[in-house]
Design a protein that fits this description.
The protein is of the alpha+beta class. Helices cover about 55% and strands about 25% of the residues. A four-stranded antiparallel β-sheet has the order 1-2-3-4. A four-stranded mixed β-sheet has the order 7-6-5-8, covered by helices on one side. The longest helix is centred in the first third of the chain and has 32 residues. It is elongated and about 70 Å long. It starts with a strand and ends with a helix.
């Protein structure tokens, strides 16, 4: 059996990607809102915001560390186990309908390599360069190919939308078109708020 774990460089990369995202809201809550309430004389509310900010800061550091320690991919006998912070997923080579080995694709704030496994109806697993080195994903792709899984290489830079166009099972629509998804989410939230305001006003 082969067990892939995060390299020390990948662990540092994971921390750099996740810790700032947690520290910003922590500082805004703790120092920003907490400080404003303290200046206004509302000490109790200020302490609540400071406490929430500290909790977010601690979670922002602890959760990536735990995730980096637990994350691993185990394969070698035709079955695959993907372990992470939230648990473990298992599947067999026969469950993988197709695989895409992408050399360079922007997804979120990071542009890196990816190995995407598609099941019969959608994405089965998505491993990216934020955590896994190119050599690790190549070894996994070779194992899949040796067991009859069609592996398509995308050696040139592509976008998420182009990968989905190649096979819709590789990426969900919201991942392939993140900007459109964010706009729809914001529009939905605004519509919900507007409906709630209208309902409240009619009840007054």
């Amino acid at each position: 059996m082969v067990e892939l774990v995060l390299t020390p460089h990948a662990r540092r990369r994971l921390l750099r990607a996740n810790v700032p995202a947690a520290l910003v809201p922590a500082l805004l809550l703790g120092c920003g809102l907490g400080g404003l309430h303290l200046l206004a004389g509302r000490t109790g509310q200020a302490l609540v915001f400071v406490g929430v900010g500290l909790a977010l800061a601690v979670l922002g550091v602890v959760l990536p560390l735990v995730h980096a320690r637990r994350a691993r991919v185990v394969f070698g006998d035709g079955t695959y186990a993907l372990r992470s912070l939230v648990g473990e997923r298992r599947f067999a080579a026969t469950d993988v309908a197709a695989a895409a080995m992408v050399s360079r694709m922007p997804l979120g704030a990071l542009t890196s390599h990816h190995l995407v496994l598609a099941g019969a109806r959608g994405t089965l697993a998505h491993l990216d360069g934020a955590m896994w080195d190119q050599g690790q994903l190549t070894a996994l792709a070779h194992d899949l190919a040796a067991r009859g899984v069609p592996v398509t290489a995308f050696p040139h830079p592509i976008t998420a939308a182009q990968l989905r166009a190649a096979d819709p099972r590789y990426l969900a629509p919201w991942r392939a078109h993140p900007a459109r998804s964010v706009l729809l989410a914001v529009a939905g939230a605004l519509l919900t708020i507007a409906v709630a305001v209208v309902v409240v006003l009619t009840m007054l």
